[in-house]
Design a protein that fits this description.
This protein is mainly β and 314 residues long. It has one domain: Tachylectin-2, Chain A. 1% of the residues lie in helices and 50% in strands. It has 1 helix and 23 strands. The chain has a 5-stranded antiparallel beta sheet, with no helix packed on it. It has a 4-stranded antiparallel beta sheet with strand order 6-7-8-9, with no helix packed on it. A hairpin with a 5-residue loop joins strand 20 and strand 21. The chain is globular and about 45 Å long.
């Protein structure tokens, strides 16, 4: 594992300031690798990087190590957000959000390494999301026919009505091609509220963090996040939330339905799923979402029911 300028420490989960936490369990080593949004925009004379922590029990971690240190001239200059790691064809691919230079859009690029902790190197030629769109939070999905996809958010900052879309990837994961499939648009959800960013003086319906999961009953489930209306969910907070969309056909082109009940409505979100080495399924989120600076990784046990996923502890 590659050391950077930050001191390597042993820390508990609740001591790590992180957004968009993603856990990659590596059975070969019986270790968990934790990625997320940490040093996203750089600081002082240090450029942005992706970092990684390592654990044997999901509670005691060592890090941060450097997972990706961008080479000179790399297209992404800031907004190092939401890294997710997948083992594909014996190598490890990181799907991550980057913002290009002045006048260039945000998008998801793909990095590659021979070890889940890195170091990662650029793999795709720039973003694999459409270059004329403002995009983020791309995730990987391979369907039952072996077709590879990236599922991503088309940003509310460009669209006003944020959307989640999918596009095919080439077998070598170098680029995308073909027709874009629209999975959902945010304003059609009865639970969602408009999001306003006073810094840009923009308001719109936000979409974040798609994550794909094939359920035992054959449903293709997608988790995603946005901001809920006050008093919609179980706490009345009206904060960052996790919603569930499902394709009963098991296909990425749907048709998609949307659960009226939010999976999590407690100022926590940007969800992904993983199993521990005993087979227990967990949802990983950052909590709280606000106030900024307090975000920590939270791992919550979930189980599959006949009608979908259910949280079994908090």
């Amino acid at each position: 594992m590659e050391k950077g300028f930050r001191t390597i420490r042993r820390v508990k989960t609740d001591e790590i300031h992180i957004r968009d936490p993603f856990v990659f369990p590596y059975k070969k080593e019986n270790k968990y690798y934790l990625f997320g949004t940490t040093f996203a925009d750089g600081c002082g004379d240090k450029d942005p990087i992706f970092e990684v922590y390592v654990s044997e029990n999901l509670d005691d971690w060592e890090g941060p190590y450097v997972a990706f240190n961008p080479p000179k001239g790399f297209w992404g200059v800031r907004h190092y957000w939401a890294p997710e790691v997948f083992e594909i064809d014996g190598r490890f691919y990181m799907f991550a959000t980057f913002k290009g230079g002045i006048g260039e859009h945000r998008g998801t690029g793909i990095l590659v390494s021979d070890h889940p902790a890195g170091p990662y190197k650029p793999h795709s030629e720039g973003p694999v999301t459409p270059k004329h769109w403002e995009c983020l939070d791309g995730t990987f999905y391979e369907d039952r026919n072996g077709q590879r996809w990236i599922v991503f958010c088309h940003e509310w900052t460009q669209e006003y009505d944020g959307k989640i879309k999918a596009i095919r990837l080439t077998e070598d994961l170098k680029e995308s091609y073909g027709e874009v499939i629209e999975i959902l648009k945010a304003s059609s959800m009865k639970w969602i509220r408009p999001f306003r960013d006073p810094r840009t003086e923009k308001e719109g319906f936000l979409t974040d963090a798609p994550f794909m999961y094939e359920a035992k009953n054959g449903d293709l489930i997608m988790l995603w996040s946005s901001y809920s209306k006050p008093n919609y969910g179980d706490t009345g907070y009206g904060g960052y939330a996790v919603a569930v969309a499902r394709s009963k056909s098991g296909n990425i082109d749907g048709p998609w339905t949307h659960d009226e009940t939010l999976l999590l409505d407690r100022n926590a979100g940007h969800a992904s799923l993983f199993r521990d080495f005993q087979g227990q399924l967990y949802i990983s989120v950052h909590s709280p979402d606000t106030p900024h600076g307090n975000e920590r990784a939270l791992f919550i046990k979930v189980q599959e029911r006949e009608n979908g996923l259910e949280i079994v502890d908090h």
